[in-house]
């Protein structure tokens, strides 16, 4: 269903990112990553674009978790090709690690690679630099990550053997197979230069095999023994090559004519003795390969325009073509506690006192609906033997019938309006000097106490899970919602964390707040999903609020509203629909109205 929230990108991405340990912020026109935060636009509903966007999220998350930016800074001091080639290798390494740590990323990353890299490519116009970069990228992803671009990889492998020679290509592929076993970005940087150094090695005259299938690194072997790809291709030209991930080739690799000059790994770009790639690749005696490395390194950004060095950037361009500018963006979720300890203690005490007696009423109500009712009938299949004696006096209701046991199975989410207008003093409450309990209460405090009372009454009732959120909260990056209680959390734990005792702030972005509230409901246990909005005014965008309520209904979530203050009845009717809202002229009625609604919800769920 187009309007269903079950497959909506913001719902999936929120828990996807929670699993990955990163944060996503919604809005804008350009997917990007900044300060370890992923920014994503809203997308049109499409299974393919959903996977591309999730793949982009996993890719950027992998850079956040596993890449070292300081190594990129070091590589940026060299020619443009070096940092682009290193980034391509790093992408393969971190995506492999992401797949191992988070199994759910395998499918999105594969779809993203296919959509971005798949298809026919004209290889005739590729320069040596583009061919090396694209070839290693395709082969690495097809062979080491098992992504569905095998045909494209085979074509590039064949082309690389034509241009670089079968011997050099074989060694490049062998070194490439080591990348998924490297421990960090620095090791990738060293491997980058080891692969580049192969370009200036002499092409061996005696090749082990000219069959491309025998030269291809095995992804399975790459996982368990990253160095096998290089060792299995040993020859007089590379037999003594150091295949360890640390890349310390300088002074130890007798097969590399540059080893004596200290240029092997380029671990120190500031070292004039060998760290400058401009001076590499010019040693005489390499036959037809003279200058090949230098030619690749000297490629400009314009010459590398056809190279696929940054998969994340190319995926971002694809995502931009499917932006949805009509759907409201989800509010971000502030997971930390935001309550005041002083005001929180007052709210908790008053809320718990208000819940006294309500818990017994709800328990009795639920128990009554669960009890198996036995009735006597004149017909049936099971006789009540104790009633047989009454047949003599004409009583023929001797058959037992037991009603099926009814069970309550519901998840309830309370969404509390915490906008600035909720700071209004409530008439009729005590005023004057003294403690906070003696001062006039705000609408925020009354609503929070009613929320806590119903959460207390429902705590521990079998088959019922509860959660609560407040909006808006400002986390420094725009409008957000705050968590008062999670569905998998005990209420006492939420109280001890200091989540109650809130202050009022902001406007009423109801449509944005419904996204995370609905996401919590969909994840919570319970067949019936119910959201109860408590608000004192109209939402910022009634049209968007109605659209989100309609999406909740299409997903099977019942949305109710209890309103007061300046809320407009016509707007409530339009947004929530008939019999789904109640307007209170006196805020003192809020607790009873909330209790009555919850009782109706539970009995209907039963």
Features:
606 residues, alpha/beta, Rossmann fold, 3 domains, seven-stranded mixed beta sheet, three-stranded mixed beta sheet, 43% helix, 11% strand
Description of the molecule:
- This protein has three domains: 9-320, no CATH class; 332-365 and 406-605, Rossmann fold (3-Layer(aba) Sandwich); 373-402, no CATH class.
- Residues 207-288 and 430-437 have low confidence and may be disordered.
- Helix 16 (358-370) packs parallel to helix 22 (590-605).
- The two termini are 27 Å apart.
- Strand 11 (557-563), helix 21 and strand 12 form a beta-alpha-beta unit.
- The protein has helices spanning 9-20, 47-66, 69-75, 80-101, 106-117, 128-144, 150-164, 166-176, 185-198, 212-215, 219-224, 228-231, 292-297, 311-320, 341-354, 358-370, 443-458, 491-496, 510-523, 542-555, 569-576, 590-605; strands at 23-26, 32-34, 37-40, 332-334, 374-377, 399-402, 410-417, 464-474, 479-485, 528-535, 557-563, 581-583.
- With 606 residues, it is α/β, with parallel strands linked by helices.
- The strands form three sheets. A seven-stranded mixed beta sheet has the order 4-9-8-7-10-11-12, sandwiched between helices. The chain has a three-stranded mixed beta sheet with strand order 1-3-2, covered by helices on one side.
- The protein is built from 22 helices and twelve strands.
